[in-house]
Amino acid sequence: MQSSTTSKEKVLKKIRKALIHKLPREMGDMDSESEIFTSSEDPLEIQFAQNFSALNGRFIFCENENEFIENLSFIAKDNEWKNIFCLEPAIKGLLNKGKIKFSDKEGDFLKTDIGLTLCECLVARTGSIVITSKQTSGRRLPVYANFHIVVAYTSQLVYTIKDALKLIREKYNNQLPSMISTITGPSLTADIEKTLVQGAHGPKEIFVFLIDDLPVAENK
Fold first, then answer.
1. Tens-binned pLDDT, residue by residue, of the chain (220 aa)
2. Which of 12, 112, 181, 185 could make a disulfide contact with 85, Cβ separation 3.0–4.6 Å?
């Protein structure tokens, strides 16, 4: 017992001595600007499509807004979609142009199966969709409907989350939205009897319609 106590006292004595006589620590300059990921030579739209699809997302590329209307109309008919809900003025204009039925009435919200929204940007490296509370669609629509359809443009593609946050800060002049969220594929859980369920905490499926709005020179 005596030797054990002595050993403990020796250790504690060394600790006290180390705390009293601290050695100077040299801290090098931290580099927070350099990229930590190996960049790909593929265009951002291809990187996003690959990563988003790997997360069970449904990706549709559209060369222009007319092709978006055609693709959405075909998919809506093929899946027998009803109760489409949309609050975004820009998308409502496209839906009206394509004679695609939808509602923007608050009383129809709880009956909606398909929610159409825009987004702040798309993150190519992770296949993520960035949304905020300052969008017209608000907080509810992206998570309520069984199917979430996101309409985005190639000019909204960024490489990393860091780039996305920089874009949002610039857009809102540092008056950040109260909610900034990333959607990285439909939610998955195996909490119930260890059976994997997709869409347990949100939409069962997520579609991204990416509309090309960049000049040809920028796409090369």
1. 455 567 778 878 877 777 776 666 665 565 556 666 667 788 999 999 999 999 999 999 999 999 999 999 999 999 888 889 999 999 999 999 999 999 999 999 998 999 999 999 999 999 999 999 999 998 888 888 889 999 999 999 999 999 999 999 999 997 899 999 999 876 555 455 554 444 455 688 999 999 999 875 555 4
2. 112
Determine contact, residues 102/69, Cβ cutoff 8 Å.
no
> pTM value?
0.77
**Which 8-state DSSP code applies to residue 56?**
T
Per-domain boundaries in the chain: 43-215
Tell me which residue has tokens 């347990």. Answer: 200
DSSP symbols for 61-104: EESSHHHHHHHHHHHHHHTT---EEE--HHHHHHHHHTT---B-
Q: How far apart are CA 126 and CA 90, in angstroms?
A: 27
Burial 18-28 (b: 16+ CB within 10 A, else e): eeeeeeeeeee
> Spelled out in words, what is the top-level CATH class assigned to the domain 43-215?
alpha beta
Using DSSP bridges, classify how beta strands 197-198 and 157-158 pair: parallel, antiparallel or unpaired.
Answer: unpaired
What Cα–Cα distance (Å) separates residue 105 from each residue in 84, 85, 86, 112? 11, 8, 9, 11
Q: Which residue has the tokens 């927070």?
A: 32
Q: Which two tokens stand for residue 150?
A: 């996101």
> Which residue shows structure tokens 């180390």?
18
